[in-house]
Amino acid sequence: MWYQWRGGAFYVVGRKRSAWVQDLKRDPRCFVCIDEEAMPPAGGLRKVLAKCTATVVEGPVVAEGSQWLPVADEMAGRYTGEAGREGLKASYGWERYLVRLDPVEGGITTWQGVGWAKRYLDEKQRAELEALMAEMAAGS
Known about the structure:
- By secondary structure, the chain is an alpha+beta fold.
- It has helices at residues 19-26, 68-80, 82-88, 123-138; strands at residues 4-6, 9-15, 29-35, 45-61, 96-113.
- It has a single domain, classed as Electron Transport, Fmn-binding Protein, Chain A (Pnp Oxidase, Chain A, Roll).
- It has four helices and five strands; from the N terminus they run E-E-H-E-E-H-H-E-H.
- The relative contact order is 0.21.
């Protein structure tokens, strides 16, 4: 799911018939998990876990005059560039929700790395990982 970080909260946009929006209306407790797919230039995949409380800010409403449009536009630009922003225009007539996910006090954990921490692996998996790391270090 696409998200936008603004003012200390995650924002997501849901379609009028999105079951997850109705779920959050019934019970606003949720988690956000961000796990990068591509290795950033600095090395190591960035990861975020956030325990949050959801608030439906508005909706369902169409784009004109909505609060969801600027958020969706930012997301479309960040995820797919200018073509995404242009493509978003085709859905301006669709009713959508804007949902804010506020991290609870002390509820955000971040780290950077690749793969699983060794403590989660059994002995065989740990040995395989060590062999792979040794191969990589040797330049094979």
